[in-house]
Amino acid sequence: MKTIYFVRHGESVHNAAKRFNELQTPLSERGIQQAGEIAERASKLPIDLVVASTLKRAQQTAGIVAERLGVKIESSKFFVEGVQATRLLGKEVSGPEITEANKSYHGNFTVAGYRFEDGENFDDLKERALAGLAYLEGRSEENILVVSHGFFMWIIAAAAVFGKELTAKECQGVIRGFDLMENTGLTVLTHDAPSHKAVGERVSSWQLKVWNDHAHLG
Amino acid sequence: MKTIYFVRHGQSTGNIRPVYQAVDVPLTDEGKRQAAFIGERCKKLPIEVIISSTQTRAAETASIIGKKTGHEIEFSDLFRERRKPTKLNGKPFSDPEAERINDIWWQSLMDAGPRALDGENFKDLSERAGEALEYLIQRKEDHILVVTHGFYMRYLVARAIYGGTLNGDNFEPLARSLVMENTGLTVLRHGTPSKKEAWGEPAPWQLWVWNDHAHLG
Protein backbone atom coordinates (compact mmCIF):
# COMPACT_ATOMS: atom_id res chain seq x y z
CA MET A 1 0.00 0.00 0.00
CA LYS A 2 1.09 3.54 -0.75
CA THR A 3 0.15 6.79 0.92
CA ILE A 4 0.69 10.01 -1.01
CA TYR A 5 0.50 13.27 0.94
CA PHE A 6 -0.16 16.14 -1.46
CA VAL A 7 0.58 19.62 -0.17
CA ARG A 8 -0.32 22.80 -2.01
CA HIS A 9 2.60 25.27 -1.95
CA GLY A 10 2.57 28.09 0.62
CA GLU A 11 1.17 31.50 -0.19
CA SER A 12 3.15 33.19 -2.99
CA VAL A 13 3.60 36.93 -3.34
CA HIS A 14 1.21 36.79 -6.30
CA ASN A 15 -1.40 34.81 -4.30
CA ALA A 16 -1.25 37.62 -1.74
CA ALA A 17 -1.56 40.30 -4.43
CA LYS A 18 -4.32 38.34 -6.27
CA ARG A 19 -2.35 37.91 -9.45
CA PHE A 20 -1.83 34.84 -11.63
CA ASN A 21 1.42 33.18 -10.60
CA GLU A 22 4.43 33.24 -12.88
CA LEU A 23 6.91 30.37 -13.07
CA GLN A 24 9.40 32.10 -10.80
CA THR A 25 7.00 33.76 -8.34
CA PRO A 26 8.44 33.19 -4.84
CA LEU A 27 6.66 32.55 -1.53
CA SER A 28 5.52 35.49 0.57
CA GLU A 29 6.65 35.81 4.20
CA ARG A 30 3.38 34.20 5.21
CA GLY A 31 3.93 31.40 2.70
CA ILE A 32 7.33 30.66 4.26
CA GLN A 33 5.70 30.51 7.68
CA GLN A 34 2.94 28.18 6.41
CA ALA A 35 5.58 25.90 4.91
CA GLY A 36 7.19 25.73 8.36
CA GLU A 37 3.84 24.72 9.89
CA ILE A 38 3.15 21.92 7.41
CA ALA A 39 6.80 20.80 7.78
CA GLU A 40 6.24 20.49 11.53
CA ARG A 41 3.12 18.45 10.96
CA ALA A 42 4.77 16.32 8.28
CA SER A 43 7.56 15.48 10.74
CA LYS A 44 5.02 13.23 12.51
CA LEU A 45 4.26 11.36 9.28
CA PRO A 46 6.42 8.47 8.05
CA ILE A 47 7.59 10.19 4.84
CA ASP A 48 10.35 8.58 2.76
CA LEU A 49 10.63 11.10 -0.08
CA VAL A 50 9.54 14.60 -1.10
CA VAL A 51 8.58 15.16 -4.75
CA ALA A 52 8.21 18.77 -5.85
CA SER A 53 6.83 20.55 -8.85
CA THR A 54 9.64 22.40 -10.62
CA LEU A 55 8.00 25.82 -10.12
CA LYS A 56 9.70 28.13 -7.64
CA ARG A 57 6.87 28.41 -5.08
CA ALA A 58 6.66 24.61 -4.86
CA GLN A 59 10.44 24.19 -4.72
CA GLN A 60 10.68 26.65 -1.83
CA THR A 61 7.86 24.91 0.06
CA ALA A 62 9.41 21.48 -0.55
CA GLY A 63 12.82 22.76 0.52
CA ILE A 64 11.48 23.83 3.91
CA VAL A 65 9.62 20.52 4.40
CA ALA A 66 12.48 18.28 3.24
CA GLU A 67 15.00 20.05 5.44
CA ARG A 68 12.80 19.54 8.51
CA LEU A 69 12.29 15.86 7.61
CA GLY A 70 15.84 15.17 6.51
CA VAL A 71 14.74 13.45 3.29
CA LYS A 72 15.74 14.14 -0.30
CA ILE A 73 13.73 16.10 -2.87
CA GLU A 74 13.01 14.83 -6.32
CA SER A 75 11.81 17.50 -8.78
CA SER A 76 9.11 16.51 -11.24
CA LYS A 77 7.30 18.23 -14.08
CA PHE A 78 4.32 15.91 -13.59
CA PHE A 79 3.10 18.07 -10.72
CA VAL A 80 3.51 21.63 -12.06
CA GLU A 81 0.48 23.93 -12.15
CA GLY A 82 -1.93 23.68 -15.07
CA VAL A 83 -0.18 25.61 -17.84
CA GLN A 84 -2.01 28.89 -18.50
CA ALA A 85 -1.86 31.03 -21.63
CA THR A 86 1.46 32.91 -21.42
CA ARG A 87 -0.03 36.37 -21.80
CA LEU A 88 -2.12 35.89 -18.62
CA LEU A 89 0.82 35.24 -16.29
CA GLY A 90 1.29 37.92 -13.66
CA LYS A 91 -2.04 39.57 -14.50
CA GLU A 92 -4.58 40.64 -11.90
CA VAL A 93 -7.02 37.83 -11.14
CA SER A 94 -10.06 40.11 -11.27
CA GLY A 95 -8.77 42.19 -14.19
CA PRO A 96 -10.38 42.23 -17.66
CA GLU A 97 -7.92 39.88 -19.45
CA ILE A 98 -8.39 37.05 -16.96
CA THR A 99 -12.13 37.59 -16.63
CA GLU A 100 -12.48 37.28 -20.41
CA ALA A 101 -10.10 34.33 -20.62
CA ASN A 102 -12.04 32.50 -17.90
CA LYS A 103 -15.28 32.88 -19.76
CA SER A 104 -13.74 31.18 -22.80
CA TYR A 105 -11.75 28.59 -20.87
CA HIS A 106 -14.49 27.42 -18.53
CA GLY A 107 -17.28 27.96 -21.03
CA ASN A 108 -15.56 25.56 -23.42
CA PHE A 109 -13.85 23.20 -20.96
CA THR A 110 -16.03 20.27 -22.01
CA VAL A 111 -15.78 20.95 -25.75
CA ALA A 112 -13.65 18.18 -27.31
CA GLY A 113 -10.23 19.41 -28.42
CA TYR A 114 -10.82 23.00 -27.23
CA ARG A 115 -7.67 24.88 -26.20
CA PHE A 116 -7.23 28.43 -24.91
CA GLU A 117 -4.25 29.96 -26.71
CA ASP A 118 -1.02 28.22 -25.63
CA GLY A 119 -2.32 26.79 -22.35
CA GLU A 120 -2.95 23.13 -21.47
CA ASN A 121 -6.39 21.76 -22.29
CA PHE A 122 -8.44 19.05 -20.58
CA ASP A 123 -6.79 16.20 -22.52
CA ASP A 124 -3.28 17.45 -21.63
CA LEU A 125 -4.17 17.85 -17.97
CA LYS A 126 -5.79 14.43 -17.72
CA GLU A 127 -2.86 12.73 -19.42
CA ARG A 128 -0.35 14.47 -17.15
CA ALA A 129 -2.30 13.69 -13.97
CA LEU A 130 -2.62 10.01 -14.89
CA ALA A 131 1.09 9.89 -15.76
CA GLY A 132 1.91 11.52 -12.42
CA LEU A 133 -0.18 8.94 -10.56
CA ALA A 134 1.48 6.10 -12.51
CA TYR A 135 4.89 7.55 -11.64
CA LEU A 136 3.98 7.56 -7.93
CA GLU A 137 2.70 3.98 -8.18
CA GLY A 138 6.00 2.94 -9.73
CA ARG A 139 8.20 4.52 -7.03
CA SER A 140 9.68 2.13 -4.50
CA GLU A 141 8.88 4.43 -1.53
CA GLU A 142 5.63 3.75 0.32
CA ASN A 143 5.03 7.20 1.82
CA ILE A 144 5.62 10.17 -0.43
CA LEU A 145 4.91 13.87 0.08
CA VAL A 146 4.26 15.76 -3.16
CA VAL A 147 4.24 19.56 -3.36
CA SER A 148 1.91 20.71 -6.12
CA HIS A 149 -0.59 23.44 -7.03
CA GLY A 150 -4.18 24.58 -6.52
CA PHE A 151 -5.68 24.09 -9.96
CA PHE A 152 -3.73 20.94 -10.76
CA MET A 153 -4.81 19.29 -7.48
CA TRP A 154 -8.38 19.26 -8.80
CA ILE A 155 -7.15 17.36 -11.83
CA ILE A 156 -5.15 14.92 -9.68
CA ALA A 157 -8.18 14.29 -7.45
CA ALA A 158 -10.46 13.81 -10.47
CA ALA A 159 -7.96 11.48 -12.18
CA ALA A 160 -7.55 9.42 -9.00
CA VAL A 161 -11.30 9.07 -8.43
CA PHE A 162 -12.46 8.59 -12.03
CA GLY A 163 -9.31 7.00 -13.50
CA LYS A 164 -8.72 6.59 -17.22
CA GLU A 165 -12.44 7.01 -17.94
CA LEU A 166 -12.48 10.58 -16.57
CA THR A 167 -14.63 12.83 -18.77
CA ALA A 168 -14.32 16.62 -19.08
CA LYS A 169 -17.77 16.96 -17.54
CA GLU A 170 -16.86 14.91 -14.47
CA CYS A 171 -13.63 16.87 -14.16
CA GLN A 172 -15.50 20.15 -14.39
CA GLY A 173 -17.75 18.92 -11.56
CA VAL A 174 -14.69 18.44 -9.35
CA ILE A 175 -13.23 21.85 -10.30
CA ARG A 176 -16.49 23.60 -9.49
CA GLY A 177 -17.54 21.54 -6.51
CA PHE A 178 -14.28 20.98 -4.61
CA ASP A 179 -13.05 24.12 -2.93
CA LEU A 180 -9.61 25.39 -3.92
CA MET A 181 -7.04 23.84 -1.55
CA GLU A 182 -5.66 26.22 1.04
CA ASN A 183 -2.01 27.16 0.74
CA THR A 184 -0.20 24.21 2.44
CA GLY A 185 -3.50 22.32 2.77
CA LEU A 186 -3.03 18.54 2.83
CA THR A 187 -4.75 16.04 0.53
CA VAL A 188 -4.11 12.32 0.94
CA LEU A 189 -4.46 9.59 -1.65
CA THR A 190 -3.93 5.93 -0.85
CA HIS A 191 -3.24 3.19 -3.33
CA ASP A 192 -4.26 -0.41 -2.61
CA ALA A 193 -5.18 0.22 1.01
CA PRO A 194 -6.20 -3.05 2.67
CA SER A 195 -8.88 -1.47 4.86
CA HIS A 196 -12.56 -1.73 3.89
CA LYS A 197 -11.95 -4.54 1.43
CA ALA A 198 -13.03 -6.88 4.19
CA VAL A 199 -16.31 -5.18 4.94
CA GLY A 200 -18.27 -5.98 1.83
CA GLU A 201 -17.31 -2.66 0.21
CA ARG A 202 -16.23 -2.24 -3.38
CA VAL A 203 -13.34 0.16 -3.56
CA SER A 204 -11.05 1.59 -6.24
CA SER A 205 -7.29 1.14 -6.10
CA TRP A 206 -6.83 4.91 -5.62
CA GLN A 207 -8.80 6.44 -2.80
CA LEU A 208 -9.24 10.08 -1.93
CA LYS A 209 -8.60 9.69 1.78
CA VAL A 210 -8.48 13.38 2.69
CA TRP A 211 -9.11 16.65 0.83
CA ASN A 212 -7.62 19.90 2.04
CA ASP A 213 -7.01 19.13 5.71
CA HIS A 214 -5.56 22.34 7.11
CA ALA A 215 -5.89 21.76 10.84
CA HIS A 216 -2.26 22.95 11.23
CA LEU A 217 -3.25 26.43 10.06
CA GLY A 218 -5.39 26.87 13.20
CA MET B 1 -22.63 31.74 3.80
CA LYS B 2 -23.31 28.45 5.55
CA THR B 3 -20.72 26.04 6.84
CA ILE B 4 -21.83 22.47 7.52
CA TYR B 5 -19.51 20.23 9.52
CA PHE B 6 -20.32 16.57 8.90
CA VAL B 7 -18.98 13.99 11.33
CA ARG B 8 -19.22 10.27 10.75
CA HIS B 9 -20.23 8.40 13.92
CA GLY B 10 -17.52 6.73 16.01
CA GLN B 11 -16.63 3.08 15.67
CA SER B 12 -19.67 0.88 16.34
CA THR B 13 -19.85 -2.73 17.43
CA GLY B 14 -21.10 -3.41 13.89
CA ASN B 15 -18.01 -1.82 12.31
CA ILE B 16 -15.63 -4.36 13.80
CA ARG B 17 -17.40 -7.63 13.02
CA PRO B 18 -17.46 -9.31 9.58
CA VAL B 19 -21.25 -9.06 9.41
CA TYR B 20 -23.71 -6.69 7.78
CA GLN B 21 -24.24 -4.19 10.58
CA ALA B 22 -27.68 -4.26 12.21
CA VAL B 23 -29.73 -1.05 12.00
CA ASP B 24 -29.16 0.02 15.56
CA VAL B 25 -25.85 -0.83 17.11
CA PRO B 26 -24.05 1.13 19.85
CA LEU B 27 -20.53 2.57 19.88
CA THR B 28 -17.58 0.52 21.07
CA ASP B 29 -15.34 1.94 23.81
CA GLU B 30 -12.97 2.99 21.02
CA GLY B 31 -15.89 4.71 19.28
CA LYS B 32 -16.69 6.65 22.45
CA ARG B 33 -13.05 7.69 22.74
CA GLN B 34 -13.08 8.87 19.10
CA ALA B 35 -16.26 10.84 19.75
CA ALA B 36 -14.62 12.56 22.72
CA PHE B 37 -11.64 13.51 20.51
CA ILE B 38 -13.79 15.08 17.82
CA GLY B 39 -15.91 16.71 20.54
CA GLU B 40 -12.79 18.38 21.94
CA ARG B 41 -11.98 19.64 18.47
CA CYS B 42 -15.53 20.88 17.91
CA LYS B 43 -15.23 23.18 20.93
CA LYS B 44 -13.04 25.40 18.73
CA LEU B 45 -15.64 25.55 15.94
CA PRO B 46 -18.41 28.20 15.91
CA ILE B 47 -21.19 25.57 15.96
CA GLU B 48 -24.75 26.82 16.62
CA VAL B 49 -26.67 23.55 16.45
CA ILE B 50 -26.01 19.81 16.33
CA ILE B 51 -28.26 17.64 14.18
CA SER B 52 -27.91 13.87 14.32
CA SER B 53 -29.17 10.85 12.43
CA THR B 54 -31.70 8.98 14.59
CA GLN B 55 -29.59 5.79 14.61
CA THR B 56 -28.00 4.80 17.93
CA ARG B 57 -24.35 5.00 16.85
CA ALA B 58 -24.88 8.55 15.51
CA ALA B 59 -27.02 9.65 18.47
CA GLU B 60 -24.38 8.41 20.94
CA THR B 61 -21.64 10.22 19.02
CA ALA B 62 -23.70 13.43 18.88
CA SER B 63 -24.44 13.23 22.60
CA ILE B 64 -20.75 12.92 23.50
CA ILE B 65 -19.91 15.88 21.23
CA GLY B 66 -22.87 17.91 22.59
CA LYS B 67 -21.66 17.45 26.17
CA LYS B 68 -18.32 19.00 25.19
CA THR B 69 -19.78 21.88 23.19
CA GLY B 70 -22.86 22.51 25.37
CA HIS B 71 -25.52 21.80 22.75
CA GLU B 72 -28.76 19.83 22.92
CA ILE B 73 -29.11 17.43 20.00
CA GLU B 74 -31.77 17.70 17.30
CA PHE B 75 -32.59 14.54 15.36
CA SER B 76 -33.46 14.05 11.71
CA ASP B 77 -34.18 10.96 9.62
CA LEU B 78 -32.70 12.80 6.63
CA PHE B 79 -29.22 11.83 7.85
CA ARG B 80 -29.76 8.10 8.47
CA GLU B 81 -27.54 5.53 6.78
CA ARG B 82 -28.74 4.00 3.50
CA ARG B 83 -31.38 1.44 4.46
CA LYS B 84 -30.16 -2.02 3.63
CA PRO B 85 -32.42 -4.93 2.72
CA THR B 86 -33.71 -6.16 6.08
CA LYS B 87 -32.65 -9.70 5.24
CA LEU B 88 -28.97 -8.62 5.35
CA ASN B 89 -29.01 -7.29 8.89
CA GLY B 90 -26.70 -9.30 11.09
CA LYS B 91 -25.73 -11.81 8.35
CA PRO B 92 -22.04 -12.68 8.00
CA PHE B 93 -20.22 -11.32 4.91
CA SER B 94 -19.38 -14.92 4.02
CA ASP B 95 -23.02 -16.07 3.80
CA PRO B 96 -23.65 -16.89 0.10
CA GLU B 97 -27.29 -15.79 0.11
CA ALA B 98 -26.35 -12.50 1.79
CA GLU B 99 -23.57 -12.01 -0.75
CA ARG B 100 -26.03 -12.50 -3.59
CA ILE B 101 -28.46 -9.94 -2.13
CA ASN B 102 -25.60 -7.55 -1.44
CA ASP B 103 -24.49 -7.75 -5.10
CA ILE B 104 -27.97 -6.86 -6.30
CA TRP B 105 -28.18 -4.10 -3.70
CA TRP B 106 -24.83 -2.61 -4.79
CA GLN B 107 -26.01 -2.45 -8.41
CA SER B 108 -29.19 -0.68 -7.29
CA LEU B 109 -27.15 1.80 -5.25
CA MET B 110 -25.27 2.69 -8.45
CA ASP B 111 -28.53 3.01 -10.44
CA ALA B 112 -27.51 -0.06 -12.42
CA GLY B 113 -30.19 -2.55 -11.53
CA PRO B 114 -33.54 -3.24 -9.86
CA ARG B 115 -34.29 -2.51 -6.23
CA ALA B 116 -33.00 -5.13 -3.80
CA LEU B 117 -35.95 -6.19 -1.63
CA ASP B 118 -36.73 -3.36 0.80
CA GLY B 119 -33.31 -1.66 0.48
CA GLU B 120 -32.98 1.96 -0.56
CA ASN B 121 -31.69 2.47 -4.09
CA PHE B 122 -29.86 5.21 -5.98
CA LYS B 123 -32.96 7.25 -6.68
CA ASP B 124 -34.12 7.16 -3.04
CA LEU B 125 -30.73 8.15 -1.71
CA SER B 126 -29.87 10.78 -4.26
CA GLU B 127 -33.27 12.42 -3.64
CA ARG B 128 -32.93 12.13 0.14
CA ALA B 129 -29.46 13.72 -0.04
CA GLY B 130 -30.95 16.53 -2.16
CA GLU B 131 -33.66 17.09 0.46
CA ALA B 132 -31.12 16.99 3.27
CA LEU B 133 -29.00 19.68 1.59
CA GLU B 134 -32.07 21.80 0.94
CA TYR B 135 -33.10 21.40 4.61
CA LEU B 136 -29.66 22.65 5.70
CA ILE B 137 -29.92 25.68 3.39
CA GLN B 138 -33.31 26.53 4.95
CA ARG B 139 -32.03 26.35 8.54
CA LYS B 140 -31.47 29.74 10.11
CA GLU B 141 -28.07 28.82 11.61
CA ASP B 142 -24.89 29.49 9.63
CA HIS B 143 -22.71 26.87 11.37
CA ILE B 144 -24.24 23.43 11.71
CA LEU B 145 -22.73 20.15 12.86
CA VAL B 146 -24.35 17.02 11.43
CA VAL B 147 -23.60 13.52 12.71
CA THR B 148 -24.22 10.98 9.99
CA HIS B 149 -22.94 7.79 8.33
CA GLY B 150 -20.14 6.59 6.05
CA PHE B 151 -21.92 5.46 2.93
CA TYR B 152 -24.65 8.09 2.98
CA MET B 153 -21.95 10.76 3.28
CA ARG B 154 -20.88 9.86 -0.26
CA TYR B 155 -24.38 10.62 -1.56
CA LEU B 156 -24.38 13.94 0.31
CA VAL B 157 -21.04 14.99 -1.17
CA ALA B 158 -21.83 13.70 -4.66
CA ARG B 159 -25.19 15.45 -4.65
CA ALA B 160 -23.57 18.69 -3.43
CA ILE B 161 -21.04 18.53 -6.26
CA TYR B 162 -23.16 17.25 -9.15
CA GLY B 163 -26.60 18.53 -8.06
CA GLY B 164 -29.38 17.36 -10.36
CA THR B 165 -26.84 15.93 -12.83
CA LEU B 166 -25.80 13.23 -10.36
CA ASN B 167 -26.28 9.82 -11.95
CA GLY B 168 -25.00 6.26 -11.56
CA ASP B 169 -22.04 6.93 -13.87
CA ASN B 170 -20.57 9.86 -11.98
CA PHE B 171 -21.63 8.51 -8.58
CA GLU B 172 -20.00 5.08 -8.73
CA PRO B 173 -16.37 6.28 -8.97
CA LEU B 174 -16.98 8.62 -6.02
CA ALA B 175 -18.64 5.81 -4.04
CA ARG B 176 -15.61 3.63 -4.64
CA SER B 177 -12.98 6.10 -3.60
CA LEU B 178 -14.50 8.26 -0.87
CA VAL B 179 -14.36 6.31 2.38
CA MET B 180 -14.69 8.31 5.58
CA GLU B 181 -13.03 7.36 8.88
CA ASN B 182 -15.10 6.99 12.02
CA THR B 183 -15.41 10.57 13.41
CA GLY B 184 -13.70 12.00 10.32
CA LEU B 185 -14.74 15.60 9.60
CA THR B 186 -16.05 16.72 6.21
CA VAL B 187 -17.00 20.34 5.57
CA LEU B 188 -19.35 21.62 2.88
CA ARG B 189 -19.90 25.33 2.40
CA HIS B 190 -22.84 26.93 0.68
CA GLY B 191 -22.65 30.31 -1.01
CA THR B 192 -18.98 30.89 -0.20
CA PRO B 193 -17.40 34.18 -1.10
CA SER B 194 -15.48 32.75 -4.00
CA LYS B 195 -11.77 32.23 -3.86
CA LYS B 196 -12.18 30.89 -7.33
CA GLU B 197 -12.36 34.14 -9.26
CA ALA B 198 -9.21 32.95 -11.00
CA TRP B 199 -11.04 29.89 -12.30
CA GLY B 200 -14.58 30.84 -13.09
CA GLU B 201 -17.95 30.06 -11.55
CA PRO B 202 -18.06 27.79 -8.52
CA ALA B 203 -20.96 25.42 -7.79
CA PRO B 204 -23.46 26.47 -5.06
CA TRP B 205 -21.96 23.91 -2.66
CA GLN B 206 -18.23 23.51 -2.21
CA LEU B 207 -16.43 20.57 -0.64
CA TRP B 208 -14.00 22.49 1.54
CA VAL B 209 -12.58 19.54 3.48
CA TRP B 210 -13.02 15.77 3.11
CA ASN B 211 -12.44 13.39 6.01
CA ASP B 212 -10.03 15.47 8.07
CA HIS B 213 -9.06 13.21 10.95
CA ALA B 214 -6.04 15.04 12.31
CA HIS B 215 -7.55 14.65 15.81
CA LEU B 216 -7.08 10.88 15.61
CA GLY B 217 -3.29 11.36 15.51
Biggest sheet features of chain A: 6 strands, mixed
Counting helices, strands and paired strands, the structural category of chain A is alpha/beta
**Helix content, binned percent of chain A:** 25-40%
The biggest chain-chain interface is: A-B, 45 and 40 residues
Explain what you see.
The complex is a heterodimer of chains A (218) and B (217). Chain A is 39% helix and 17% strand. The model of chain A has no long low-confidence stretch (mean pLDDT 94). The two termini of chain A are 30 Å apart. Chain A has 218 residues and is an alpha/beta fold. Chain A is globular and about 45 Å long. In chain A, α3 links the parallel β2 and β3 (73-76). Chain B has 217 residues and is of the alpha/beta class. Chain B contains six helices and six strands; from the N terminus they run βαβαβααβααββ. Chain B has a six-stranded mixed β-sheet, sandwiched between helices. In chain B, β2, α2 and β3 (73-75) form a beta-alpha-beta unit. In chain B, α1 (29-42) packs across α2, α4 packs across α5 (150-162) and α5 (150-162) crosses α6 (168-177). Chains A and B meet through α4, α6, α7 and β6 of A and α5, α6 and β6 of B.
Brief overview:
The complex is a heterodimer of chains A (218) and B (217). With 218 residues, chain A is an alpha/beta fold. Chain A is built from seven helices and six strands, in the order E-H-H-E-H-E-H-H-E-H-H-E-E.
Keywords:
heterodimer, A: 218 residues, alpha/beta, 6-stranded mixed sheet, 7 helices, 6 strands, globular, B: 217 residues, Rossmann fold, 6 helices
Write the layout of secondary structure elements.
The complex is a heterodimer of chains A (218) and B (217).
Chain A: E1 2-8, H1 13-16, H2 29-42, E2 49-53, H3 56-69, E3 73-76, H4 96-107, H5 122-138, E4 143-148, H6 150-162, H7 168-177, E5 186-191, E6 206-213
Helix pairs in contact in A: 2-3, 5-6, 6-7
Chain B: E1 2-8, H1 29-42, E2 49-52, H2 56-69, E3 73-75, H3 96-109, H4 122-138, E4 143-148, H5 150-162, H6 168-177, E5 185-190, E6 205-212
Parallel strand pairs in B: 1-4, 2-3, 2-4
Antiparallel strand pairs in B: 1-5, 5-6
Helix pairs in contact in B: 1-2, 4-5, 5-6
